[in-house]
Design goal:
The complex is a heterotrimer of chains A (359), B (118) and C (121). Chain A has 359 residues and is of the alpha+beta class. Chain A has helices at residues 56-61, 68-83, 89-117, 121-142, 162-187, 190-196, 204-209, 214-218, 226-230, 250-273, 323-334, 343-349, 354-358; strands spanning 3-8, 20-26, 29-36, 151-152, 155-156, 289-298, 301-310, 315-321. Chain A has a single domain, classed as Cytochrome-c3 Hydrogenase, chain B, CATH 1.10.645. In chain A, 47% of the residues lie in helices and 14% in strands. In chain A, the strands form 3 sheets. A 3-stranded antiparallel beta sheet of chain A has the order 1-2-3, with no helix packed on it. Chain A has a 3-stranded antiparallel beta sheet with strand order 6-7-8. A two-stranded antiparallel sheet of chain A has the order 4-5. In chain B, the strands form 2 sheets. A 3-stranded antiparallel beta sheet of chain B has the order 2-3-5. Chain B is elongated. Chain B has a domain at 35-97: 2-Layer Sandwich (Alpha-Beta Plaits), CATH 3.30.70. With 118 residues, chain B is of the alpha+beta class. Chain B has 3 helices and 5 strands. The model of chain B has no long low-confidence stretch (mean pLDDT 83). Chain C has 2 helices and 6 strands; from the N terminus they run E-H-E-E-E-E-H-E. The termini of chain C are far apart. Chain C has 121 residues and is α/β, with parallel strands linked by helices. Mean pLDDT of chain C is 80; it is low at 117-121. In chain C, the strands form 2 sheets. Chain C has a 4-stranded mixed beta sheet. In chain C, strands 5-6 form a two-stranded parallel ribbon. Classes of the chains: A alpha+beta (359), B alpha+beta (118), C alpha/beta (121).
């Protein structure tokens, strides 16, 4: 029995983002893992001292490229709570539309990376081809494919016209139909099942003790979804329930995210149908004072924003607790006992966003 | 459990050919509203400096005394703040992306000197 | 999201007891962060239950702060946040279940968020 320490990362086959794990191996079974992060640390939290709070939305949404809009939106929600501002209903619904579009593109990206992690490159390409449909919708309505720049403290900066809404609906119909063609490859294919079923099991008890959030928790049976518990933005008027699976393995997490794709398509359609007329934003004046904790449901789970204002136009503290950081203990619990060949799949199954983790 | 789950997609892809466009021979028409490179129309600018104040990255600098408007292209994030703030509407975001820059110098526009009064 | 967050000041002696009481009551450990104040460092621990959040706040002096008792034995995920606070802010914890030395959050300049020796102008 040879014991080796294998450095996994920062360049590794599973993500374009760097994460370092020192894996202790006995032959080819992992017995321990030691994480090390900081490779994409940009010190964004410290930038709040030099960028005033209205401009800081642009920094907040650049914390991550995949969950960009929800970062910007949660930051704006925090500022609006601190200043006691209520945003117009049209802005609430538009924020929901863009959040769900964000969730769609993030989950499709993850499905592609998952297929790539176990070597099914053709399925990876097909998933990302479907993602292009969502990115077209995002580009048309916000002007950018990845960084939306459409949330601002007080509301939203751009509108979705009826033509754009019709375009989105058309793309969603096409997405639904093509999704139905690739989902059987993820859930029913025997070769894929061999890589996903029974791998990286987290029990419900473990998910609760380790503080897992998002699809990682929901796949282990924990009914946790910030959209249903907090009902922020326009979610109090939209039908949304957490999608649960009970097996706790990689296949269950895959099933939960695919279920959320279908849920998001339905939510976007409902939100576009019910889009109220009205203003896009209210004016925000004054400087924030005091503490606020804002939460939202990102594609990866619960994100907590801690904003602290001291009466000046610069925030005293800007702290983001991203869902990947909360899921890292779950990852470190999954790794011991797994085979080395499964490590890429396990790392990917928590949907890691290392830019979010390191800010 | 199902076999050949991917066969239909693979066969269709084989017969239909690539779904990507043959860039640069075929260029995509960008939808209106895409936030690309900033365009500046010097003739209408009054050098009030509001765009420079609003710019979150500090990419714009305006000097009223010398009638100079300059932009650091590499700092511009195409956020549209300056376009919305300009009272004379002399700023627009083109749908084409910023061309690659070879230097980090600012792009400076100075108003031409008025013709000498005769 | 509450308009005024429920923040409870604690000391080094009462921190672990309060955290244990909250965990017994069904509150889940959500996050821990450190904030640099002009005259010290402030640690905030957040606990979540359904739609509510509750926070414990501990203030440390700028220099020669005593080691903070770690919550990692009570709330398993706390070890990661405490390692991060140590690596970025230089806060020391006693009783960490998993201690990565200073190798968890690697930055070119160690303790990059720590308050500077002289106050910034």
């Amino acid at each position: 029995m040879t014991r080796t320490i294998m450095p996994f990362g920062p360049q590794h086959p599973v993500l374009p983002e760097p994460i370092h794990l020192d894996l202790e191996l006995e032959d080819e079974i992992v017995v321990g893992a030691r994480p090390s992060i900081g490779y994409v640390h940009r010190g964004l939290e410290k930038l709040c001292e030099t960028r005033d709070y209205t401009e800081f939305t642009f920094v907040a949404e650049r914390v991550c490229g995949i969950c960009s809009f929800i970062h910007g939106m949660t930051y704006c929600q925090g500022i609006e709570e601190l200043l006691g501002v209520a945003i117009p209903p049209r802005a609430q619904y538009l924020r929901v539309v863009w959040s769900e579009l964000s969730r769609l593109h993030s989950h499709l990206l993850w499905l592609g990376l998952l297929a790539d992690a176990f070597g099914f490159e053709a399925l990876f390409m097909q998933s990302w081809r479907l993602r292009e449909l969502v990115l077209d919708c995002i580009e048309l309505t916000t002007g950018g494919r990845v960084i939306f720049s459409s949330a601002c403290p007080g509301g939203v900066r751009r509108d979705v016209t009826p033509d754009q809404a019709a375009f989105i609906r058309g793309k969603l119909t096409e997405l639904e139909q093509r999704l139905g063609e690739i989902v059987p490859a993820f859930l029913n294919d025997p070769a894929v099942r061999q890589r996903l079923a029974g791998v990286g099991v987290i029990t419900r008890q473990q998910a609760e003790t380790l503080g897992a959030v998002g699809p990682v928790a929901r796949a282990s049976g924990v009914a946790m979804d910030m959209r249903t518990s907090l009902r922020y933005a326009a979610y109090d008027e939209l039908p949304v329930e957490p999608i649960i699976a009970n097996d706790g393995d990689c296949l269950a997490r895959c099933r939960v995210r695919i279920g959320e794709l279908t849920q998001s398509i339905g939510l976007i359609r409902t939100a576009l149908d019910r889009l109220p007329a009205g203003e896009l934003a209210v004016k925000v004046t004054g400087n924030p004072t005091g503490d606020i904790f804002a939460r939202a449901e990102q594609p990866r789970g619960e994100v907590i924003y801690h904003l602290k204002g001291n009466g000046t136009k610069f925030l005293q503290r800007f702290r983001v607790r991203t869902p990947t950081f909360a899921n890292l203990p779950a990852l470190l619990a999954m790794l011991p006992g797994s085979a080395l060949a499964d490590v890429p799949v396990l790392v990917l199954t928590i949907d890691p966003c290392i830019s979010c983790t390191e800010r | 459990m199902a076999l050949f789950t991917f066969a239909k997609t693979a066969l269709r892809n084989l017969l239909q050919g690539p779904c990507t466009e043959r860039y640069p021979f075929v260029r995509r028409t960008m939808p209106a509203g895409v936030r690309g490179a900033l365009q500046f129309e010097q003739a209408t600018c009054i050098y009030c400096g509001i765009c420079a104040k609003k710019c979150p990255t500090g990419a714009l600098k305006v000097d009223r005394a010398t009638k100079t408007w300059s932009i650091n292209r590499l700092r511009c994030i195409s956020c549209n703040y300056c376009v919305a703030a300009c009272s004379k509407k002399c700023l627009q975001l083109d749908t084409a992306h910023m061309a690659p820059a070879q230097t980090r110098d600012r792009e400076v526009h100075t108003a031409p000197a008025p013709p000498p009064a005769s | 999201m509450t308009t005024t967050p429920a923040i409870e000041p604690v000391t080094g002696a009462t921190l672990t007891d309060r955290a244990a009481a909250l965990t017994r009551d069904g509150w889940r450990f959500a996050q821990a962060c450190a904030t640099t104040l002009p005259d010290g460092i402030e640690l905030t621990y957040s606990f979540a239950r359904a739609a509510d959040l509750q926070h414990l706040r501990l203030t440390l002096p700028r220099q020669e702060a005593p080691p903070v008792p770690s919550l990692s034995a009570i709330c398993a995920p706390a070890f990661l946040y405490e390692n991060e606070m140590h690596d970025l802010f230089g806060v020391t914890f006693s009783g960490l279940t998993v201690d990565y030395g200073s190798q968890f959050y690697r930055t070119a300049q160690p303790f990059s968020f720590a308050p500077q020796a002289e106050p910034q102008s």
